[in-house]
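FORM 7B: Structural annotation worksheet

SECTION A. Query
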Amino acid sequence: MKAVIMAGGEGRRLRPVTGETPKPLAPLLGRPVMEHILRLLAQQGFTEVCAAVKYRAEEIMARFADGSGLGLSLTYRVEREALGTAGGVKNCADFYGDEDFLVISGDAACDFDLAALVRTHLESGAAATLALYRSPEPLPYGLTVTDGDGQVRAFIEKPGWSRVVTDLVNTGIYVLSPRAMALVPEGQAFDFAKDLFPLLLQRGEKLLGVAMDGYWCDIGSPLAYYRCCVDALEGRLQLEPGEAFLAPAGAANAAPEEEPEGLDCPCRDRALLMGTLSELFLPLGADYSDGIRISAPNYELQIHPSPSRSAIRIAVHAADEEFARSLELSAREVAKALDL
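SECTION B. Predicted structure
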């Protein structure tokens, strides 16, 4: 499969963070964001990639060379004048030829199943297929309205809240047919969202919108960039980190912490709940050397946070099993009431 990466952007809004660095080379977990995209493509069976470059093109080409180090065949097409999103991809026409191909931004982070998107496109016979993403804060993006069959019916460019009619945002990831690209003029500025897709709708062509599972983020602003970095560090975005972010030697072989015994009690914030319970049991002479431990002549109550999820474990040891079970349930109800 072939893919075209749009990598010509300057990233002006991101300059407070990256300076003059081209936006596709902005670091994310120790690798340029474009490298994460290239790795994702290689993992999913894309073998030939063309990068449409413009701003500081020589830096991007020097960084990735022919792509062989990432298991790809990577070529470049340099824009001398700004051609817009569709115009820049049209500049790669000799690369994609008469094949359907994927278009993806080199300055956005995602972990979508791109191969599945291509399969859906080919099965549908659509002129273009758009990868959509559900966003609770859609104002910075273009919105896409689809019908019950997933066909695109309308576009709304960066609306105010009064015009928000869907949470599906256009990610700038597309699968395109040759007949769609034939409508893009050569050597002229032309945009996918503003020009090509409305034209395809006017001509009655089928445009498919697919709501994707996974994570996507356009790192166009410092706030979006920092959020994306945090999401990647916390595992919401699945990426392969650079060497500087790998676990120390031996950490991978460390034995996982075992779940403590007891009755599971899910909660919203296990550390906060444990702190509240610690204050509650302090007057009772609680021991905090191993979770919370309350000892009495005929029972022992233990409360530990779960190491693997947001929950606490409550265990009671007593000779009277019925009493132990009753105390466990009572402690669970107390914990649930305090989980604010």
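SECTION C. Observations
Residues 260-338 form a domain with the TATA-Binding Protein fold (CATH 3.30.310.50). The chain has two domains: 2-245, 260-338.

SECTION D. Sign-off
Analyst initials: ____
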